[in-house]
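Lab notebook, bench 4. Still working through the backlog of constructs that have no structural model yet. Next entry is a single chain of 709 residues. Request: give me the structure tokens for it.
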Amino acid sequence: MNLSKNMVLFNYLLLTILFSTIACNNSNTVNQSMGQHHKKGKANQLINQSSPYLLQHAYNPVDWNPWGDAALSKAKAEDKLMIVSIGYAACHWCHVMEHESFEDSTVAKLMNDNFVNIKVDREERPDVDNIYMQAAYMTNGRGGWPLNAIVLPDGRPVYGGTYYRKPQWIKILNFFASEYKNNRLKLEEDAARMEQGIKSQSNIKLNLDKPAYPNAFLDNTVAGWLTQIDFVKGGPKRAPKFPMPNNWEFMLSYSYMKQNKRAQEAALITLDKMAMGGIYDHLGGGFARYSVDAEWVAPHFEKMMYDNGQLVSLYSHAYQLTKKQLYKDVVYETLEWVKREMTDANGGFYASLDADSEGEEGKFYVWNKADIETVLGEDAPNFIQHYGVTVGGNFEGHNILLEPISEQESAKKIDMTTAELRTFLTKNKQLLMAERDKRIRPGLDDKILTSWNALMLKGYLDAYATFGEEAFLDVALKNAKFLRKNVIAKNYELTRNYKNGKASIRAVLEDYATLSEAFITLYQVTFNEDWLKDAEGLVDYTLQHFFDEKSKMFYFTSDEEDQLIHRDIEWSDNVISSGNSIMAKVLFQLGTLTYNTKLVNIAKQMLDNVQGEISKQPRFYANWLQVAALFNQQPYEIAIVGKDAANLRLQFKDHFLPNTIFLGGKNEGNLALLKNKLQAGQTTIYVCQNKVCKLPVTEVAKAIPLIVY
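Model written out:
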């Protein structure tokens, strides 16, 4: 029970991945929201929920309750143990267990007679999931979904596990029902130990040593990390492989700033292999959640908004650096998928697409060689060669489309120019897409989550700042205005979810951090200070309601939220960077823009607190490393003032400029650095560092040489 925080998080990532490589799909077969459910008998207490995952269980014979005061009070009043069962709409083994156990009347009676049963959508309530996932690790040394915890009426867990076959589940239910009647003291002792173990995981101490972040710290950390990289297939030297966008964002920035070719190679080989591999949907755009193998061939097919938002940003930045057509294609195709399949009419972005259709993983996405030949006719041989299609297939007798070699190499083999091949592939991909659209589609989780929307909002903004595509900015502004209207209160309190016109769940730190970062990015793209004001409002609210004065870190939940058995502080980065590392970057950027040294100092203290952990497992501290880079070298502040400010800002799109902050506008605005910068009759660019500006210029081509890393 005394697992270190790093070890818990490392296991949380790896073991749940291993468990879910055969899982995390959905047996739903309708081309509708995942919330569609078959009416079988009487509805339970989930029927009025908006979560598609909860609605899937609304007609189970299990008397499910949503998480909340009513269910917790019921457990105390009836003096019953609780079962807290947690999952999400795209989780295959969640649905297997539902079918085997939760739809079984005998199992349901056993659960209803002896327990108060609670269903939780982990995407809506990550705080609840975090607590009981730690219980699963302490019980069994592994985690995953479905997550099933046995919990005392006061909320303390005594046991945590994942998927169980019906006979196993019945044994567990009978055991704990008996223990609660006959050996309650033992359960109380187990709960006390479990509670102490959970609380120990988020103990972070205030570091008053005032460490610095010289080149040696970054260089040594990266050198150790590079030994863990697969320089043939990209990513880490293991399977399964997750995209981990924050890893490669840091590597790109670091490699450019420090002229480290090996770090750049690590990032670009990973981006190449992901974009060419089966984890990428070559027909419809967008990335699956991870690859089950070490070569990015066979994905787990579900598509998550949070992955794709971050990957759009990453590939946009990689294009700025390399001008590689592959990266541009990924951005445009992924955003076309978001527009086509994942965007609400009001501008919100949906959560995810399922991995399964018709009860089979990947059935919507895979192809038989004969089917391609039927659809494409005389074009089939060249298409088949390019995408490595075979009779035997590369996935359970079928073919996942992927590119074994680059377009340039393929064009030579097929005896086409690269341009001819691209035209050929575009035409035939459209034909296959039309055929694929006739299939039963994977289920859609159409809830709108604030943090995941913020990540895709930033993706659209980074794409606009790279390619200058006005449609990208239009979508971004529509989404930002949607979020401003529907999830942000006048006092800047956020809600986490939005569905069917309602937002009901209090946001967690991740929501405040990601949305603040997106709004700061929106200001840097548009120079509209209203977005910066909104970012300030969100940060002020977060400092007031999430900040821990003792550790100088931020809690995962607000002080206005009904507290669980423990108020967690999360700091390690994962597939989404931790709320604390994102907030540290936000505080630095906002403090720099507004001359608020208090914010910058808080960011520095937060970084100091985790400094000792960064070099141990850098891939779980990649966003913190980006914060360290800010303190290693003061970022450039590029101020653009004058009536042509928007046009000159956009001209920077051709340049990869990590560690820079843009500010400006037609007028001087309200930021101190812009005062007295407006010159009559011209638009002027100032390249500044730590509030000190070089001589002004009027052309981007003259400004770029002034930015020296």
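Notes after review: The longest strand covers residues 81-87. Residues 1-32 have pLDDT under 50 and may be disordered. Flag for follow-up if needed.
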